[in-house]
Design goal:
Elements: H1 9-12, H2 34-38, E1 48-53, E2 59-65, E3 70-75, E4 96-97, E5 100-101, E6 110-115, E7 118-128, E8 133-138, E9 143-149, E10 158-162, E11 168-172, H3 190-193, E12 195-203, E13 210-219, E14 222-228, E15 236-242, H4 251-254, E16 260-267, H5 268-276, E17 281-293, E18 298-310, E19 319-325, E20 328-333, E21 339-344, E22 350-354, H6 355-363, E23 367-371, E24 374-377, H7 379-382, E25 383-387, E26 394-399, E27 404-409, E28 414-419, E29 425-430, E30 435-439, E31 452-457, E32 474-479, E33 486-492, E34 500-504, H8 505-508, E35 534-538, E36 541-549, E37 552-554, E38 557-562, E39 566-573, E40 582-586, E41 594-596, E42 601-606, E43 612-617, E44 630-636, E45 645-647, H9 654-661
Parallel strand pairs: 13-18, 36-39, 38-44
Antiparallel strand pairs: 1-2, 1-34, 2-3, 4-5, 6-7, 7-8, 8-9, 9-17, 10-11, 11-12, 12-13, 14-15, 15-16, 16-19, 17-18, 20-21, 21-22, 22-25, 23-24, 26-27, 27-28, 28-29, 30-31, 31-32, 32-33, 35-36, 36-37, 38-45, 39-42, 40-41, 40-43, 43-44
This protein binds sulfanyl-(tricuprio-$l^{4}-sulfanyl)copper and dinuclear copper ion.
Length: 662
Amino acid sequence: MKRTIVAVAALAALGLHLTSCKPKDAGSAVSGDAAQKVYVTPGQHDEFYNIVSGGFNGQMSVYGLPSGRMFKIIPVFSTFPENGWGYSEETKPMLNTSHGYIPWDDLHHISLSQTKGEHDGRWAFGNANNTPRVARISLSTFRTDEIIELPNSGGNHSSPFITENTEYVVASTRFSVPPDNDGDMPISSFKKNFKGYISFISVDPQSGHMGIKFQLKMPGISFDLARAGKGKSHGWFFFSCYNTEQASTLLEVNASQKDKDFILAVNWKKAEEYLKQGKGKKVAAKYAHNLYDEKTHSATSTIINEVMTLDPKECPGLVYFMPCPKSPHGCDVDPTGEFIVGSGKLAAVIPVFSFDKIQKAIAGKTYDGEFDGIPVLKYESVLYGEVQKPGLGPLHTEFDGQGNAITSFFVSSELVKWNIKDLKVLDRVPTYYSVGHLSIPGGPTSKPHGKYVVAYNKITKDRYLPTGPELTQSAQLYDISGDKMKLLLDFPTVGEPHYAESIPASLLEKNSKKIFKIEENGHKYAAKGEKEAKVVREGNQVHVYITAIRSHFTPDNIEGVKLGDEVYFHVTNLEQDWDIPHGFAVKGSNNAEILIMPGETQTLKWVPSRVGITPIYCTDFCSALHQEMQGYVRVSAKGSNVPLTFSTGKTAAPEAEKVAKK
Ligand code: K7E
Ligand code: CUA
């Protein structure tokens, strides 16, 4: 089994079964000093944070490099019962959309915020591939702070990619669709009515708050990936496009007809000028904008009803197509901003485009016709050169900051290093197996940190202890500091990582939030001390202002709740020590637990389903007496006249015990 090579010929035969082949030396040994290079002495910290997309788990995860140790899962688009994300009343609005509450999505790409083309350590952005959205994650709390939905889009794959000062996060649609406000169209009218919208989301430089500044209404094709220009090409954006055949069925064949698809070049500075001139058109749309407020520890969701659009056909000089061989996937810009690398999934070469030549071709109108009214630049006029015989199935390219590029090859299962100037292949190493994205620390910035590359592999097979039909996805760390790439480490991941970025620990460590100050807690239902703890009835709603501190809740005995009530436990964690969360869970609750950080308030809603005594307890082992951190809620029948009472530390008099029993 180990040495079977699977149908590479299929590629050539256009059978298009893009299964991978296994490298022959699948068991290959690592070099002697590999262990030393990844060994982080217990108690010591890693050199890099590695922030990894979770794919179909809808989350991000945080690892250390070079150790490959996982530190955290950050829920973004998917609920996470482990800490109540999407279950607590405060976080539910974060998952609201124009379709209502959605508990899941598919997160493929990470972008870390930049200033002057370099990592600034403030935010991470992530995309929702299914129900188009972009999220912003704070790199101080490591939590999702904001989610914005994208109208007129279907499948937000080409996202989120950022400009060199985080002016914009850009997202383009994978599925072309008719505009949201006029969508009831025959699918056969694709060419006429389906459009490919590209959203430019502005980011406030102080708060990070996002807003859709404008959408470009492009012809009905599919956008796959993108990168902003940088340095000399700052002000431009590049997108890989496929399905320029404009097929709406059996794309595996119908969208692979043409010899070349496109890379789209967008002059976004020019778009800003056109907007200023009033060329934009506001159209009706419906999308959610969700914001989490660190002071109130609560999220709000607002529905927005219009979006600004720009039609490139009315804005000359705004967009150009460049032919790019065979279904381009990755579209990556080198650190200088001069070279744009397109990776055609079915192509035999890697084309490298030159920004200077693009500018010349535009100035000289060196066109090769047009596509749906948009000029197509001549391939030869914009091409810097092609990397010959690089491998099979190129997907993504990153840069080492030493003048080299490394490209991942899914079909031939390898990483290939090549020189950007002379386009010569320098080195290749196998990956186990079928690498998707790759990531070099700082790889997409103008100053890559280099040192390592991580391969995020799609297929794991025999690399780990088997765990039934499903195996963990595997990441592999390579040393790229020398001429030859050296495999150092395999480490398992969660979900299915696509893109990831790594950033020096020194940029994040110092800003990491330790506690929320209790005196700054602006939550409407906070109890900032045990004296403020109380239970209040408002109609059939019972609001429990409950505090948690090692090792008890206040109150921990509650009576007078009745069937038909909705009980809201607003739990405030009074601790002001780092790393002392308390958890909260209720027996029989159709909900998750909540995990409350020091100084924070979170709310668990519970609708009792039966009469009786319901235990509540702390789920996080917070002290030696954690197990004692528990309490009771008495639920009585509808219409019962048990009064609403609450207490902590009150022991019943023997008299009362007798009476109560009757
Ligand atoms: Cu290549 Cu969705 Cu970025 Cu995965 S995509 S590999
Ligand atoms: Cu609080 Cu365990």
